[in-house]
């Protein structure tokens, strides 16, 4: 069965077609706060889309932007001593985003373009829209005229007459139509915007944010034009897939389509894929609400495999809730997969695995799993059903291991390869690694042994203390004594 996707633009499930290269653009994060599990849900599902397309043989050109110019970022300037301005705040959180992405085992994008590095391209695109009559200047700002683009509203299925006014109140007097939106904003960030988004008390003059020269005077780019400029710069006029959260359909993605197609005369994106949102405590996870769990904290407590197993518990288009129950389910599913994989590896590498032992039920289960996994992923990247197929395989593997003392080498080898290829390469799980909980427990046990050793030394039982040190070194823990107390490292 060929790959099919649900296209927000048409509302239909369509067969996916592309050339050898798939041009994938993912709406990235505005780096104004710590990355949390709500942001990571889109990242992981986009990563699984990337991995599955690569599995199908496509060369995936994946671009994901970083929005490092925004009033929310400006408002945090001065909050820490090292944050002298908007760029300092953005640099801090951009580094945190990249660290979180690596911790989540995401495939690297081809590039991560930043708004601050693409202002010339943004200005060029705006100039094209002004020259072709799709945009107009007003007191140093530039607005897109939605009435010049006949298909405006086609992504969100709205008519211009039904739309609410866009932009800040002080912009509305400058606009020809209430739904026109800013491409370029004159001057810096307004005091009202800083006060709205500030998380601390500002002393002295309020920060205004970065500004750049343009044909219309100093100013800053509007939010929507940034993605159009960055995506077309790195992927060309027409994208194959554009991904983002469902909350971005309007106005962000609607406006991207209008300004991009008005400027180029080409279709902007062939397939629009929108991910459902993550909720916590009954509301969308959000930094502004405060109901969030940061990615670093979640990785420390749960580990990457449990987090990715959690996300794989729902298809990308579905809404998902983060609760004690859904986390427990993810922990149990990963434990089941991990233990079965480890047992299969141990068995296939043992002398009890034989060339002439054949378990037709095991071999059939492996092939069924591969077929069911492929069918699920080709059904709009339905990773939940794909995970179910992998979990079903654990039953067949465990049954084979429990039934006798001689194992089917070829059958187990094929099962191990299936876990690694589909669970590892596609879903991004890391088999053969300890979980965060196991690592934390190991550290606690080492520290407990060191405490006992110190007690023995204080009591004058040096021989016993040396025995404990030697025992730790035998299992790969090198103890180093110092005047401040013992430390250790893995040797």
Low-confidence spans: none
Radius of gyration: 27 Å
Subunit organisation of the chains = single chain
Instruction: Report how far the terminal alpha carbons are from each other.
Output: 50 Å
Q: Percent of residues in helical segments? A: 40-55%
Major sheet? 4 strands, parallel
Number of strands: 17
What is the strand content?
A: 5-15%
- Average per-residue pLDDT, rounded, comes to 93
Overall, the morphology is flat
What does this structure look like?
- This protein has 491 residues and is α/β, with parallel strands linked by helices.
- The chain contains 16 helices and 17 strands.
- Strand 3, helix 1 and strand 4 form a beta-alpha-beta unit.
- Helix 4 (119-131) crosses helix 7, helix 12 (360-378) packs antiparallel against helix 13 (383-403) and helix 15 (436-458) runs antiparallel to helix 16 (462-474).
- It starts with a strand and ends with a strand.
- The model has no long low-confidence stretch (mean pLDDT 93).
